[in-house]
Amino acid sequence: MEIDRQFVATRLSTLIGVMTGIALPAFFFGSAVSGAILGVVFLCFVVHPDRNAAWSHLKSGLRDPLAMLMFVTAVLWLPGVLFSIAPGKSFETWLRVLLFVVFGYLVWIHLQENRVVWQRAVQSLLLAITLTTALALISLFGPSDFIAWTRFIDNDIYHLKATVSLKSFGAMLMLLLPVVVWIGWRKGKPWNVLSLGLAGCFLLIIITLKNKSAVAGLLAAFLACFVVFVRVYGTRRQFYSSILVVGVIGAGLIHWLTPATKDIVVHSEVRFDYPLPLWLVDYTRQNIWGFVLDRAMESPFVGHGINAINLLPGADRPIHTGSVNLVPSHPHNWFLEIFSETGIVGLIPLLVLICATLVRLIRMYAATRDMAVMVALAVSVAYWASGLFNFSFWAAWWQVAYFITVAICLAGRGQDHPPATG
């Protein structure tokens, strides 16, 4: 029976690794496909012979300061459930976040403690993302109906456009770009050549999709990692110089964000006192943010309810004739979203948690010089920076993508070199 138990455990662990690796690339086919794959991973955890050890590790992990801070944040979000204008929806969203955190932790533990399984995961990730990247390129530059063919639907009915359908996939590529480059570098030839080619394709797709939030996320990640790298390996003078360089590059980025929407505003009936230059933040987002901020100040302490800001009166009013609503399902800014939905009570602990997480990663890298930690830092900065301009903080696919990506990175700690012997 012990042999059978070991056989089952090995096969299930391998399945966890492979399915974890292909889950995020599979988002090309839609969030339902990725969700189904991750559902299989969760079922493998449930029936795994070593599941008790994993749950014990989870319990011991609750004593970690970051875990405690997560718990405090979750508790302080409860007023956003209790006083919500849609308590059922708010509670479901709140509970879902907790489940995603637990799931991401389990993935991290399993991959970290099984080096072969981690290898299966990253190799599956590279192969799967190569396939879906090729499909994305064909969708963007090939036949207009190709995106519909990949999803087995009739485009004469649904009229899918690749530039619209792949927006979320482009954001996923933003998170995976530093991971793919790191994995290729770690595995050596020919994987490093493949990863560099994929990185170029990722950028081409993101630029073609005109996903400026993804570009901003990548630039923020690069600049943050650059500063940390100089701080760890350079002198104090070099560190301060790097901050100056980052400032110059940031100014160049602002200049690059051209006033693409200015003419639209001038020729529309919109009348709004824009607090930010239109070449920095487009008029649509500024209208959305202005409305959300006004509503947030009506309930600044506990907010209007988690994932419920779009249900407030007036949120469905169009910005101008034929355009989007004042709140098209979410504010396109996680800071304003959390503030308006959970108030100061929910926003402050989240900000502390984010800062504490980034500081932990920076200190880990300074102590170990492990590139896995640097990549996890890059993913985190990209996630939070791009989230200031796009997607809902509560979007299930967006949260899962972040947790799984960081789990894969941190599980790879100490695997850049063979373990020491003796």
Describe the structure.
The protein has a domain at 212-415. Helix content is 71%, strand content 0%. It is built from 19 helices and no strands. α7 crosses α12 (191-208) and α16 crosses α17 (334-368). Residues 258-271 and 417-422 have low confidence and may be disordered.
SSE sequence, one letter per element: HHHHHHHHHHHHHHHHHHH
Report mean pLDDT, rounded to a whole number.
85
Structural class: mainly alpha
Shape: globular
Low-confidence regions: 258-271, 417-422
Number of strands: 0
Q: Major sheet: size, sense and barrel closure?
A: none
Rg over CA atoms, rounded to whole Å, is 22 Å
How many helical stretches?
19
Q: Into which percentage range does the β-strand content fall?
A: under 5%
N-to-C span = 33 Å
Fraction of helical residues: over 70%
Gist of the model:
With about 425 residues, the chain is an all-alpha fold. It has helices at about 1-25, 30-45, 50-60, 65-75, 80, 85-115, 115-140, 145-150, 155-160, 160-165, 165-185, 190-210, 210-235, 235-255, 260-265, 285-295, 335-370, 370-385, 395-410. The model is unreliable at about 260-270 and about 415-420 (pLDDT under 50).
